[in-house]
Design goal:
Layout: E1 2-9, E2 20-24, H1 30-33, E3 37-41, E4 54-57, E5 60-67, H2 71-78, E6 81-84, E7 97-101, E8 113-116
Parallel strand pairs: 2-3, 6-7
Antiparallel strand pairs: 1-3, 1-8, 2-6, 4-5, 4-8, 5-7
GO molecular function, one term: kinase activity
Protein name: PTS glucitol/sorbitol transporter subunit IIA
Length: 117
């Protein structure tokens, strides 16, 4: 299990019409920060995420239903992962995404704890 804390939420990071959150660590560029949730991990080691694991935003829990082929690599390299809150499409799958259920955006704020695992 690993944890991060939300440090900032970009002005364009949350869109109720698009059930997606884009997360980066604090090394994200200023232009990325406008569209992303910036997280800071409490540990150096990033554990591998697998289907069936849980993802929590404070006390809001989600089940991981699919892990994109480069999601773990990007999470380790730059704290980057996209969280998708909708059914997995056959044509528009994101390689860096975690697909989760339920299909509902979480309520997040600066200071929200994100728990992977």
């Amino acid at each position: 299990m690993m944890q991060s804390v939300v440090k900032s939420i970009g002005a364009e990071a949350i869109n109720k019409e698009e059930p997606l959150l884009i997360l980066f660590d604090t090394s994200a560029t200023e232009s990325l920060k406008k569209h992303a949730v910036i997280q800071e991990f409490s540990e150096e080691a990033i554990n591998e995420i697998k289907v069936g694991d849980t993802l929590r935003f404070d006390d809001q829990e989600y089940k991981i239903t699919q892990v994109g082929p480069v999601a773990n690599q990007y999470l380790k390299e730059m704290g980057h992962v996209s969280i998708v809150f909708k059914e997995i499409g056959t044509e528009d799958q994101l390689a860096n995404a975690l697909y989760v259920e339920p299909f509902e955006l979480p309520v997040i704020k600066e200071g929200t704890t994100i728990t992977y695992g």
